[in-house]
Write a structure and sequence with these properties.
By secondary structure, the chain is α+β, with helices and mostly antiparallel strands. The chain is built from three helices and five strands. Strand 1 and strand 2 form a beta hairpin. The model has no long low-confidence stretch (mean pLDDT about 90).
Length: about 140
């Protein structure tokens, strides 16, 4: 496991910064967000430093998502929220605030006012079809 000396979440993994842990295993850590969107807001991270989904090895992404699901189930059982968002941001344009891959488990309350959702507005089907073709052409060959 490689950790970054200056990364906030790597410092939490090393125990240099305290956190309210809700789960820990050999490869992942989940803890409460100290700037919660709503009560019960948790974060799941790999115990490996990578900044975004793009540079995270598949095996680390897989275990992080498995931990995310475990945390989501526990939050659902504990709080019975109106809904639950699973959010993963990449880069400043997506408002990623800590440059370490992390997944938000964000319980939602009815009319909670969080500005995560966007309105439904039908798109142009020809433009959508053309963009789908372009994206398909750039799919990695696994």
């Amino acid at each position: 496991m490689t950790l970054d000396a200056n990364c906030l979440f790597c410092k939490i993994v090393r125990g240099e910064i305290p956190s309210f842990k809700v789960h820990e295993d050999d490869k992942t850590l989940a803890f409460m967000d100290i700037n919660p969107g709503n009560p019960g807001h948790c974060l799941a991270i790999p115990k490996f430093h990578s900044e975004t989904i793009f540079d995270t090895p598949d095996e680390w992404l897989a275990v992080t998502m498995a931990t995310t699901r475990r945390i989501a189930r526990a939050v659902q059982t504990t709080l019975s929220p109106y809904g639950l968002n699973i959010v993963q941001a990449n880069g400043p344009g997506a408002k990623q605030s800590v440059m370490h891959l992390h997944v938000h488990v964000l319980p939602r309350a009815r009319d909670d006012g969080l500005l995560l959702n966007w309105g439904l507005k039908p798109g142009n089907m020809d433009e959508i079809r053309a963009l789908a073709e372009r994206i398909r052409a750039n799919m990695p060959k696994d």
